[in-house]
Design a protein that fits this description.
- By secondary structure, this protein is an all-alpha fold.
- The chain has one domain: Growth Hormone, Chain: A.
- About 75% of the residues lie in helices and about 0% in strands.
- The chain is built from 15 helices and 4 strands.
- The strands form 2 sheets. The protein has a two-stranded parallel ribbon. The protein has a two-stranded antiparallel ribbon with strand order 3-4.
- Strand 3 and strand 4 form a beta hairpin.
């Protein structure tokens, strides 16, 4: 008789959806809206946005390495997830205090209050990232690996990978409920930019805190052995040891490919919302185009996770990257047409999220048993650190000389252009070439292993 594939229980599925969605909502605010926040509030340049993304990436990496290894040593995930989510929410609330009026009163001798506000935002972003990475990147991701099997991991990763889009949908939808905002509103029905951002931070922060509390009641601590994980220092460097690389070569090949994929995404992602608002006819109405694209891409990604379970890596990653590249091309040549913006965004998102799901699943499949926490740091190096530094630098470079305008508050702001998609496409094509070589290399390694086992 054919062995039935293990199914995900209802409680596990609910925990996955709730914590993945809320975590991604918080990351949407950090990864996409903080850029808009310091752009609108303090007139940040592309260099400052790039610096914030890079600093956050470094903190996320170090945090995930240290806390992931610690959770392996202790054999505990639940407490790190729950307490981390609560403190994560508190750190989001703190951004309500980053206002020129407040900072100016604290530092009256400062000549550029906006510059100080940008610096404080970057510092607070790093603090928020520490709590978020401890809870989500290090321990929630390790918990998900521990709680799933090779037979249902594609499904779980498909759900997990669609959550960034669902989070964008939730945040965009919530933003649509808010009235228009201006720096200095002069008409009824328009709120100040300060009030607008205070509402966003208050709501998101409160939700994250509540979910952290709920976690104490619904998260089931997975059983894992800690006998081999008691040396904390060895846990930290475990994934970077040459002997470990030699014993799991496929894992490191997939991580390298995932890194280049992440660089492609980070070329345009920090500037995406600003691009839609300032460089296209969509303006603030970009939400009306993005919402249906997000819904369709989310459904596609959930289905693609099941396709990975059946077809595995090679046959599922190629179509995903193909969709991503076609999306880039349409966005680069959109010529201000709403239809092309929609189709390009849809294909880009389908490719981005489905490829993210495929990479996530194959990396989990190749992670050594009882070592999930240790390898989260390695994963974050490829997923966050290198892409978060290299990607925005490329994005800032392709925006060199971009047009600018003087806003109503007298601050000069840059306007992102379609070159961010061209830069992302070039990196994706490099990834395609690397993928071909990786497929042949992995086949060679598997044949060599089979011969060795036969002898």
């Amino acid at each position: 008789m054919e062995k039935k594939k293990p199914k995900m229980g209802g409680k596990l599925l609910a925990t996955l959806i709730i914590f993945s969605l809320v975590g991604q909502i918080a990351w949407v605010v950090e990864n996409m809206y903080f850029n808009v926040f310091i752009y609108e509030m303090f007139g940040a340049s592309s260099d400052k946005i790039s610096a914030m993304v890079a600093a956050s990436s470094v903190v996320a990496t170090l945090t995930t390495i240290l806390i992931g290894a610690l959770s392996d040593k202790l054999g505990k995930r639940k407490v790190f997830i729950c307490v981390g989510y609560i403190l994560w929410g508190v750190s989001i609330l703190s951004f309500m205090l980053v206002r020129e009026s407040i900072i100016g009163a604290i530092f009256p001798a400062v000549t550029s209050v906006s510059a100080i506000c940008i610096t404080i935002t970057i510092v607070l972003d790093c603090i928020m990232t520490f709590f978020g990475s401890s809870a989500n990147d290090a321990c929630f991701n390790a918990w998900l690996t521990d709680s799933t099997t090779a037979e249902n991991r594609g499904m779980a990763e498909g759900i997990n990978a669609m959550m960034p889009l669902m989070a964008i949908l939730v945040v965009f939808g919530g933003a649509m409920l808010l009235p228009a905002h201006e720096k200095n509103p002069s008409e009824s029905g328009v709120i100040s930019t300060d009030t607008y951002w205070s509402i966003i931070f208050a709501v998101i922060g409160a939700i994250v805190i509540i979910i952290g509390i709920v976690g104490f009641f619904i998260i089931k601590e997975p059983k894992q052995s800690t006998e081999d994980n008691q040396n904390y220092f060895k846990n930290i460097i475990y994934g970077f040891k040459p002997s470990v690389v030699k014993s799991s070569p496929k894992l490191y090949i997939y991580l390298l490919l995932f890194t280049v994929f992440g660089i492609s995404i980070q070329v345009f992602m920090p500037y995406l919302i600003i691009y839609y608002q300032k460089a296209t006819p969509l303006g603030d109405g970009y939400v009306l185009v993005m919402v249906p694209a997000i819904v369709l891409a989310a459904v596609f990604t959930a289905i693609w996770g099941r396709i990975y379970d059946k077809l595995h890596f090679n046959k599922s990653i190629v179509p995903s990257l193909g969709l991503l590249c076609v999306g880039y091309i349409l966005l680069f040549f959109n010529y201000g047409h709403t239809a092309l913006l929609f189709i390009g965004s849809l294909l880009m998102m389908c490719g981005y999220l489905s490829a993210n799901a495929v990479f996530g699943a194959v990396i989990r499949d190749n992670t050594p048993e009882n070592k999930a926490g240790m390898f989260q740091g390695l994963r974050i190096v490829g997923q966050v650190l290198i892409p978060g530094i290299v990607g925005p630098i490329i994005g800032s470079a392709v925006l060199e000389g971009a047009k600018s305008f003087t806003d109503t508050d007298g601050v000069e702001r840059f306007i992102p252009n379609e070159n961010i998609f061209l830069g992302a496409l070039v990196v994706a094509l490099v990834l395609g070439a690397m993928l071909v070589g990786a497929i042949f290399l992995i086949r060679h390694l598997e044949k060599k292993r089979t011969l060795n086992e036969g002898n």
